[in-house]
Amino acid sequence: MAIGVFGAVPDAGEAARTPTDMLEAASVFSRPLYWMFEMGQAALDPFRAMADAGRLYYRNPANPLAHTDFGRTLLAGFEMFERTTRRYGKPDWRIEDTTVGGTKVPVRIETVWEKPFCRLLHFERAFARPPRRPQPRMLIVAPLSGHYATLLRGTVETLLPNHDIYVTDWVDARMVRLAEGRFDLDDYIDYLIEIFHFLGGGVHALAVCQPAVPVLAAVSVMEAKGDPDVPASMVLMGGPIDTRESPTAVNDFAQARGLDWFRRNVITTVPWPHAGVMREVYPGFLQLHGFMSMNLERHLQAHADMFRHLVKGDGDSASKHREFYDEYLSVMDLPAEYYLQTLQSVFIDHALPRGAFTHRGETVDPGAIRNVALLTVEGENDDISGVGQTRAAHKLCTNLPEDKRAHYLQPTVGHYGVFNGSRFRAEIAPRISDFVLSHNWPKKGHNQPAEAPGPAPDA
């Protein structure tokens, strides 16, 4: 979930309340907050238009002032104003091809499954001839925690040469009509089960951060029912399976606030003219405030550096800044029911490791998992999901054989480095591919039951 958006353990009366009851407690201030934000954005539109005009004027090579320090300073100021006040839309994937076996292969992204709050994207590779190396199907479950699925662009690009990739593309809640109904953590798990059924048995699930819990829960539910469409393996990366392990500043913050405080201060309603008008959400602009405040000094310094790069005419450095912040500042609204239920179940009650996690009123038991291989990946310097929080999944999967499980701790990387960057490409991704190939079923839907359970890896 987003940084700085957790709460403390509620009392017994609070714990008994449903997410719908929680929404009714929203304060008079938070309800119109989104509407005030939209008014502020509208009020800034004329000034952004003036800044755009100023950028065009001082960027024109025919303008003598464009070649002076004075002109470049004004140009930098106009761009910084426009970038710091705009609302960033959903980024493009920008994946048009990949390289398989030394050959460049075109990639086409198409929607193959769709529900109101999620689309399943297939990164279809147009092979001239089938590759000799096996290409296991992989479902990458993107986090529904503020940023768009495109945050995993680097993850997809790295894994695409060796896997047939599918990605969950979560829909911005402000774009979902109120008539489409609610969406909570139970619905999230239902979506995953439906996707597994759509893809058929033998797919490999990779969960990045937040979806580690619902993926583990969905697989547990399916295994308990003997569902033949369970995945062949699941890779959980930097996920909050048990936030009592090595608690981070984020987890400590969760104990400093009450759940009621978040209900009253961060839950608001979507304003007109968005399609989801009157839907109750945790808005993206508040999440962004949380993201930025955690490392505010670093972000301020980055923007000051960009201003200097623009004045000096250092286009390469300025371009890297734009590329990073165009993605980082693109945020989406979360359905309020989902946010509050996840907050309470995962970060406050620690329901899954305590054996109290439920789905549609039924207890979820990871001990039912016997056939789905498990790989957990953590970063040594992860300040979001501390060391041990993801590995805790092995303790819960008590009946999973030893030869179907593995754990890897990547040295010197933080949360983002677990799924992106040079160390992910060089050290983590190859291990994921090897694990997937080692547990790839001979054919779609082939599921051999385990014969005997094995102990979990040493803590």
UniProtKB/TrEMBL annotation:
<dbReference type="InterPro" id="IPR029058">
    <property type="entry name" value="AB_hydrolase_fold"/>
</dbReference>
<feature type="region of interest" description="Disordered">
    <location>
        <begin position="440"/>
        <end position="459"/>
    </location>
</feature>
<protein>
    <submittedName>
        <fullName>Polyhydroxyalkanoate depolymerase</fullName>
    </submittedName>
</protein>
<dbReference type="Pfam" id="PF06850">
    <property type="entry name" value="PHB_depo_C"/>
</dbReference>
<feature type="domain" description="PHB de-polymerase C-terminal">
    <location>
        <begin position="238"/>
        <end position="438"/>
    </location>
</feature>
<dbReference type="InterPro" id="IPR010915">
    <property type="entry name" value="PHB_depoly_PhaZ"/>
</dbReference>
<dbReference type="InterPro" id="IPR051321">
    <property type="entry name" value="PHA/PHB_synthase"/>
</dbReference>
<dbReference type="InterPro" id="IPR009656">
    <property type="entry name" value="PHB_depo_C"/>
</dbReference>
